[in-house]
Each structure stands twice: as structure tokens, then as C-alpha cells.
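Lecture 7 notes: from sequence to structure.
We start with the chain below.
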Amino acid sequence: MYAVLKQLVRCLFPLLVRVRVTGQENFPPSGPYILATNHLSVFDLPLLMMICPHTVRAFAASKHRRNPFYFLVLSAAGSIWVRRGEIDREALRGAFEVLKRGEVLGIAPEGTRARRVYALQPGKTGAAYIATRADVPIVPVGLTGTEKVKENLPRLRRTDVTVTIGEPFRLPESGRVRGPKLDEYTDIIMRRIAALLPPEYRGVYG
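Predicted C-alpha cells for the same chain:
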């Protein structure tokens, strides 16, 4: 289903957006790795599926199961359902299984998409926890413009969207990292993402 969905996205999404991609060469030749990005809208995942050469399995909030359309699309994409605001061990197992299969785990370290002010919020430690436990590289991605797609869609106006892919990096250590170090490593991840964004999108990492 993922391959079919990806082909549909590649055919239909360009009707909605004009995409400018920078840093495509920074994608590793193969997985596993974590794709860490800012999160602006529901259109972020289709955009990443279109751009990334590998299979991306992203976290999706469990609340979207109640929406038939979102449920269908996110299930077809093989998303990992996660309960926000708590430690979801089943979602964590799913994330580690994705990486063990050599696929790409898509994470927005903020834990939710930006609303109203489309700038970075403080990152949660989940991405750093998974990266250190799985000992995989992180590819930071900065997105701009996807927050305007919903607004432009009724006007039949294409939206200019930018995707900036940064160089892969690893956190200073791997294994059972806890406490303040996870906070420190989360800050590293978020600042890597912020460096790929215009100043007005950097929020608390400006």
C-alpha cells in the first residue's frame, strides 16, 4: 500500500504545491535513520513521502483514527499510532521495529504541529531517546509553506513549499541515555532543524 500511496502523492501533490528542495544529496544511501522535522500541517507527511527516496513511517496521533479519511491515508502509509501526552510503549516498540527493518522513522520532535504561530516549539525527548537506543543517524529537515496549503486549496491556488535537508549526524553517545542528557540531545536535534529554517520559523530556537 505504501508504494501505491507514494505514486498517488507524486502524481497529485504537485497539483497543490510548487516544491523547492535543497540538500537532496544529504539523504543516506539507505536506512535505517530518523527523519527529524518541524511540523506545520497535515500535508507534511505526503511531502516527505514524495521527497524521501526511502520508506518513511511516521508517528501519527491516535485522535486521527476518528477521522475516516486520515485513518485510511495514515494506515496506508504504515504510520505508527501514538497516544500524546504519555509514554506509549507500544508506539516505541513500533518505532524500533521500523528501524530494525532498515526503514526511515519520521519524527516531529515538537510532538505536535505548530498552530497559529508557525514556529518551533520546545522539543520533546522522544526523538533523542529513540536515536540513542537504536544507535541510528538523524537527518534534519526544515519545512516551510505547508501551513498555507489548506488556505490556498479552496482558491485553487498552488502553494510554494520549501524542503531543506540537512547533513546526517549522530548524537554524542548511544545506549541508555537518561535525564538531563536527553534534554541536551533534544536541544541538539532542534537546533539542527532550526538552522535549516528562516528566522521567523525558528521560534524558541531562534
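Points to note: The chain has a mean pLDDT of 91. The longest strand covers residues 138-144.
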